[in-house]
Amino acid sequence: MGTESVSQVGPFVMPAYPYDRLDEIKAIAESVYGSYLDLSVGTPIDPPPSFVPHLLATSGMERGYPPSIGTIGLRRAASDWMAERFDIHISASQIAATVGTKEFVASLPRFLRLRESDRDVVLYPEVSYPTYQIGAELAGCRHFAVPVNEDGSLCLEQVPEWAVDSALLLWINYPSNPTGRISGIEPAVEWARQHEILVVSDECYAEYVWKGDGDTALRYSVEGTLALHSISKRSNLAGLRAGFYAGDGEIVQFLSEVRKHAGLMVPGPVQVVAAESLGDYGHVAEQRRRYLERLEIMVRALTAHGIDVELPEGGFYLWFKAVDKGLATGFELAAYLASRAGIVVSPGEFYGDSSKEYVRLAVVAPTDLIQLVASRLSS
C-alpha cells in the first residue's frame, strides 16, 4: 500500500539531506583503505565534449541577461534532439530551459499551485528520486507515494480517491532512478489523462537505456504532459546546470512566465554549450560504452561475491538487496561494502520507506577504479 502525508501544521521542519548521512560509511572505508570511492551520488566524472571550453570562452553571451525561457537556438536544438531520439515533433514554442533539472523538480508543485490552487496532492513512485517528495513538502502540498510493481510500472489502481480528486501532478521517471526499470510510461500517461492530472516524466537518463530504444511520455500524449531532460548526465555537464522541459504548450507557457518573474535563467554561455551538446551524438556513444562496461564489471563482481544483481534496463545504477549477505538493511550492506571494498553506496531508504533493504551503487568512477573495487570483492 502506498504512503501518504497530511498537510504540515506549524513551521516547516527541514529533513536531513540524505547524502549528509553517509559520513559514518565513509569513515568505515577510510579506516580500512585510507580513503573511499564515492559511488553513492550519480555525479558524472568523465570528460565533457571537447568543444565545451572554447564555446564557454567565446560565446559572447556573458554580458547580457539571457532569456529565461531559453534562447531560440537552445529550444530548437532540443526540438531537433527529440525528433532524432524519439521520432516525435515538439516545436520550440513547447520547450523551455531549466537551471539544471533538480530546481525544476523542487519548484514545480509550488508554481503549479498558482495555476490550480484547489489541487494540493503530488503523486510519485514509492521508490524514486527523493526530490519529488521534497518538492511537494516545500510547496505545502500533501503527497502520496504510489506503489510500484516488480517491472517498474505504477500500481495506479491503489491511489485513493482523495488523492486522485486533489492531484496536482503525477511524477513518473523512466529509466527509473534508482531501480533502472523502464516499464509503464504509456499506462501512466493514459491514467493521468483519464483523470485530467498533469503527468511529468523525468527522462534525464533517456540516453542510457540498455533494453530497447528508450521512450518518452510525449509519444503517448502532449496534452497534459511534460517531459524533463538534462545535459548533466547525457553530456557530463552537471556543473553547468542546464536542461529543458517540453510538452503541453499552455503549461510550458505558464511555467516559463512564472519562472521569468522568479529570475530563473540559464547563463547565456551555458545555453550555447547546451545547444551544441544536444546536436552532438559522438560523445554520448562513448559515454554509453563507458557506463555499460562499468555496469558489466560490477555485475560480474557482485554476483561472484554472492549478491543477486542484474544489469539495469536503463540508467547507470545497480539496485540490490542486503539479504544476500545475511543483512537486514541497506545501511548495514553499505557498511559491509565500505569495509570490504572501500566504496560508499546509497542505502535504499533514501529513495523511499519501502526500499530500506536495498542499496544503490552508481558506476561513476573511472573504469580502472571500478576494476579495483571488483578485485577487492573477489580477494
Structure description:
With 379 residues, the chain is of the alpha/beta class. An eight-stranded mixed β-sheet has the order 1-5-4-6-7-8-9-3, with helices on both faces. Helices cover 38% and strands 15% of the residues. The longest helix has 23 residues, at 282-304. It folds into two domains: 18-47 and 282-378, Aspartate Aminotransferase, domain 1 (Alpha-Beta Complex); 50-279, 3-Layer(aba) Sandwich (Aspartate Aminotransferase, domain 2).
Structural descriptors:
379 residues; alpha/beta; 2 domains; 8-stranded mixed sheet; 13 helices; 38% helix
Write the layout of secondary structure elements.
Elements: E1 3-4, H1 23-33, E2 37-38, H2 52-58, H3 72-86, E3 95-98, H4 102-113, E4 121-125, H5 131-138, E5 142-146, H6 161-165, E6 167-173, H7 185-194, E7 198-202, E8 225-230, H8 231-234, E9 243-247, H9 249-261, H10 268-278, H11 282-304, E10 317-321, H12 330-341, E11 343-344, E12 346-347, E13 358-362, H13 367-378
Parallel strand pairs: 2-11, 4-5, 4-6, 6-7, 7-8
Antiparallel strand pairs: 1-5, 3-9, 8-9, 10-13, 12-13
Helix pairs in contact: 1-12, 2-10, 3-10, 4-5, 11-13
